[in-house]
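Q: I'm a student working through a structural biology exercise. My instructor gave each of us a protein and asked us to get a predicted structure, then write a short paragraph describing it. Mine is MutS protein-like 5. I'm not confident about reading structure output yet, so if you can add a plain explanation after the tokens, that would really help. Here is the sequence I was given:
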Amino acid sequence: MWSDYEACRRRVLSLSLAQEPARCSGAEREVFLRTVLDLGQALSVHALGALLRHLDLNWANLSLNLYGKPEFLRLKRVSLADIVCIDEDTYSGLQVFSALAHPAGLRRGARGSAREGLSLYQLLGKCASRLGHAALRVLMRHPSSELATLQRRLDVIEFFTRPENDSLMRNICSSLRYIRNVNVRHSLFGI
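A: Happy to help. First, here is the predicted structure for MutS protein-like 5. I'll explain a few features afterward.
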């Protein structure tokens, strides 16, 4: 059924995002979705619709909430032209990531038991929250080739490494330490 383009398009048009206007009609939702999606890109709409349907069917297996449904905060457009493609051998050779087996024999080989060894990720991974670690892993897994993006990142790094901004950085880091999962907070407060 989900090989059918029209079914996928209908699923995309029924998508509800946290940032859309409250209590909007189907026509208003379609207008809003057209601002964040190019519905003329048939392959993208088809792929997104199939992905949404897969999440609908398998959400109980993917989430701790058995009876809940997935909530989507926003859609982000990703261009493959801006991403540098790197194979696993290159990641290994450059020691970007390095997984170590768990030192306890009982946990060795168990899913999620590997720890990060000496790697570039470990050296740079001074994040204050789990979300920060996950975001850093994504940035290092999919590096950008877009000069403007790289310049913005460099500007942020330069700003926070200046001695006069040290107290600001420490305040932000201490606040971020208490943020666990933004999605749960959104659902608790009805945001």
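A: Here are two points you could use in your paragraph. The chain is about 50% helix and 0% strand. The CA atoms of residues 131 and 182 lie 9 Å apart. It's a good idea to check both against the output above yourself.
Q: Great, thank you!
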